[in-house]
Amino acid sequence: MFKKWLLFAAKLAVSVLLIWLIATNFEIGDVADRFTRINYWHVLSAFTVFLILVVNNTARWYVVLSAIHTDLKFLTAMKILYIGYFFNQTLPSAVGGDAVRMYLTRKEGASLQGAINGVMLERVATVSGLILLVVATQPLLLARVGDSPAKYVFPGMAAAAVLGICMLMLLDRFPEHLRQWKIIRGIGHLAADTKKLFLSPYHAAKAIGLGVTGNIMIAFMAYSCGLALGVQVSILDCLVLIPPVTLIMTLPISIAGWGVREGAMVAAFAFVGVAEGDAFVMSIMFGLVNIFFVIPGGLIWLIGGNRGKDIADSGEMPVAS
């Protein structure tokens, strides 16, 4: 438990430090004043996109669960996903939303293998879709930021993603004498489920395709946040720049991406002429609306009679960092 809280404290320190560095080293203007002139119609637009995003991401998870033969009703999956978003965004806890999803899926009658692997492979499909979107929009990105050695980074990440999936499929080839260990058998089950998903063109295309559309919707949400604050940014800019920012945010070094997102957005949007203060306040707005939008997930958690200590008391569910 001490190690988990130490890791949380380290991530919190990174988030606070990065935001402080941006606030003190860049011209961000009067941030508080910008929030007094919010156009709430655009916030409502962002919320509408968020609701569509939840359906999209539930469909992606549902495809993964179907591929690995794990039964879970669509509406139940949507409820669990929403609860997971609440834990990911709002609670200063060492228990991540993915662990909550695994636990609740298990409570709904899924096997432990299906609950764990379903969430893990949905994450793989999400990141794969994100990398594909970044690579697809790279020509537009280079047209805005100019040619640079960085143009090799994202294709390299795409190659690494494919290699990583292939390696996952090979994790069931441990020697027979090692399979007496529970963790080795679990890794073998993960490899088998990875094959079921990614060696099926139908399931793989749908899961990764929904990963692409989900990240496009995130770009639309960011665009709506910019409009709500009067930031002069185009939808094309967001479609090109938000996916790389989201990819950088997947680094597990901060709390819910805070600090990392702000730094990445200030740097990325500077290439298209967006002022540092505008990019910073847009990032803060994006983070805040995400927290606000996932609050219903916490209410669903409470209404469902769940308690935080249920997860800690469960001997079956691993705790995610």
The number of E-state strands comes to 0
Number of helices: 14
Average of pLDDT: 81
Q: Main beta sheet, described? A: none
Classify the secondary structure makeup into a structural class: mainly alpha
Describe this structure in words.
This protein is mostly helical and 321 residues long. It has one domain (8-313). 74% of the residues lie in helices and 0% in strands. The chain has 14 helices and no strands. The protein has helices at 2-25, 31-34, 40-67, 74-90, 97-107, 112-136, 138-145, 153-169, 182-198, 201-228, 235-249, 260-270, 276-303, 308-313. Helix 3 crosses helix 6 (112-136), helix 6 (112-136) packs antiparallel against helix 8 (153-169) and helix 8 (153-169) packs across helix 9 (182-198). The longest helix is centred in the N-terminal third of the chain and has 28 residues, at 40-67. The protein is globular, with a radius of gyration of 20 Å. The N and C termini lie close together (11 Å). 40% of the residues are buried. Residues 311-321 have low confidence and may be disordered.
